[in-house]
């Protein structure tokens, strides 16, 4: 532990200038956040002409009739327009909040709020919680019209929306309620660790955040998810038998198999699994069951089980923890930096002893360009894992010695095509746009890879 703290102290010595140099951090954040937004707008401009193509890629031509392909192109075009406008709008909003000192005002407002409740500025944790929720609520309100438009205009126009105005409003209120019920104690514990551990907070905070993530793995499906959707045991039948047989042969620790009423809000479809290493739960959207044959749903789950088999969730967790560790290792230099807060319009009295949460929030803003690069790199890792999971499904019959699964690759291909057709997903994708935004390879890339895997195996067998 002493070695770790020594190395962390070395990092802080290299960043000591942050605490004394009068850097215009606000200008830095404004410049780079606009640069990221403009780059994302440029990617949309690169992608947009592809929605004018009249025919799908040759590999998909026989799977799309002209009407469906035209609908998918129109859907992609409308989503791109909306993404372009909403991206600029949100950036403009964030820029105005920064320019007019909204964060400093929110901290002052939080102080006045707890003072009325009988608490003084010495209650930093309490003021920090009030500060976060003032920020959260007031910055969320201007974007509600965008959410409503996306749901009731964009998704409605293309036949996907199933959300009623009542559900829309109750979902927002439930989300805010959950954010307060879970967020307040999380923030309190998060900030208490800083107070208790001092500048040696990094390992303790890492342990806390990992523990919190494990707790959420248990709480989300049992407490949070049921507030929004109904999870019912998957009925007896061909699909259930296929999944239980597949899980048994792979020794997948399946505890529960659920069907979720995703159609309550949208006709989009999906499937996923969650849980602790020794107890897993599979959830299948009712829309996927309605839109696909049991053997195709089985192929989709074979792909998902490939992620489990190759420990992809665990690997992604390890990468994310290293990422968090790197952020926390850099943070102490910004935690004790009055010039940082002064740059964002905080009063001298507050900046002289920077509140931990305020410093951390501003530090996160400064990391914006770095986080953009990290996100793109994480997408590249995720796509690699997706190809591995596809190959797992193709080779599954050899692993479980089940001849009836020899066609799993073909079934997965059909399922992927079916999902893209039903969801009107874009099939023409600019490479740069995909690299930045997509955690999955494009449909054409996945089909070509599956065909390549199959051809390679056939050649080896000769």
UniProtKB/TrEMBL annotation:
Record text on cofactor binding: Binds 1 zinc ion per subunit.
Compartments, record wording: Endoplasmic reticulum membrane
Top-level taxonomic group: Eukaryota
Annotated GO biological process: CAAX-box protein processing
Annotated binding of Zn(2+), by residue: 303, 307, 386
GO molecular function annotation: metal ion binding; metalloendopeptidase activity
Every Peptidase M48 domain range: 234-453
Keyword hit for DNA damage: no
Catalytic activity: Hydrolyzes the peptide bond -P2-(S-farnesyl or geranylgeranyl)C-P1'-P2'-P3'-COOH where P1' and P2' are amino acids with aliphatic side chains and P3' is any C-terminal residue
Domain CAAX prenyl protease 1 N-terminal intervals: 47-230
Membrane topology of the entry: Multi-pass membrane protein
Function: Proteolytically removes the C-terminal three residues of farnesylated proteins.
Name of protein: CAAX prenyl protease
Species the sequence originates in: Agrocybe pediades
Lineage of producing organism: Eukaryota, Fungi, Dikarya, Basidiomycota, Agaricomycotina
